Amino acid sequence: MDKQTQTELEAAAYRGLVEHLRKRTDVQNIDLMILAGFCRNCLAKWYKKAALENGIEMDYASAQEIVYGMPYSQWKDDHQLKATPEQLASFDAADKAEI
User: Fold this and answer.
1) Entry pTM
2) Where are the domains of the chain?
3) Which of 44, 77, 84, 89 has the highest CB neighbour count under 10 A?
4) Are 39 and 96 in contact, with CB atoms under 8 Å apart?
């Protein structure tokens, strides 16, 4: 496979992941962090980093809007729930396991 085709397939896979996460608003970021070690905000940080590495000026809020499909503040208001004590304990345990 040539590099251009690989890049196009990777971009398509990324777009599929972002679209899936936009539809699955029931999946909280903390749950993603516990299970997978990354969340929507991580994707936004990676997107911003890639933009900057390619000479494209971008702030974190703009990258979040690309990932969430709306301003992050709106997504939080519409979809983010307060983390439960169980989620926080699982997050802490998962975080310590990585050290």
Assistant:
1) 0.89
2) 3-97
3) 44
4) no
